[in-house]
Each structure stands twice: as C-alpha cells, then as structure tokens.
C-alpha cells in the first residue's frame, strides 16, 4: 500500500487530465490511512500475538 500511495503522488503531479488527477488523489486518500492504521499499537499487537 505504501508503494501505491507513493506512486500516486507522482501520478498526481504528472496528470494531464482531470480524471487522472482524481484517480491519483483517490488512491492517496485511500492509501495513507491504511498505512497509518497499520502502525497503531493495536494493529502491531495483533500481528505479534501468540499463535
């Protein structure tokens, strides 16, 4: 997801049409919260749980 968000930044800055910019902006808006939420203590605790 991190690579998608970073790729979307370059797509947003090089967008030639409004539709391309909106597509890149939606990927940024959807990707950044996912990355942030994965680093919350509750999320890391879930991945480190006893198996």
List keywords for this structure.
mainly alpha; 51 residues; 0% strand
Describe the fold and architecture.
This protein is an all-alpha fold. The chain has one domain (2-47). Helix content is 78%, strand content 0%. The chain contains three helices and no strands. Helix 1 packs antiparallel against helix 2. The longest helix has 21 residues, at 18-38. It is rod-shaped and about 50 Å long.
Short description:
The chain has 51 residues and is mostly helical. It contains three helices and no strands.
Low-confidence stretches: none
Strand content: under 5%
SSE order, one letter for each helix or strand? HHH
Question: What would you call the shape?
Answer: rod-shaped
Question: Can you lay out the helices and strands and say which pair or pack?
Answer:
Elements: H1 2-13, H2 18-38, H3 41-47
Helix pairs in contact: 1-2
């Amino acid at each position: 997801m991190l690579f998608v968000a970073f790729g979307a930044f370059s797509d947003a800055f090089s967008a030639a049409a409004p539709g391309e910019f909106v597509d890149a902006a939606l990927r940024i808006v959807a990707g950044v919260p996912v990355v942030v939420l994965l680093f919350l203590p509750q999320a890391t605790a879930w991945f480190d749980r006893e198996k």
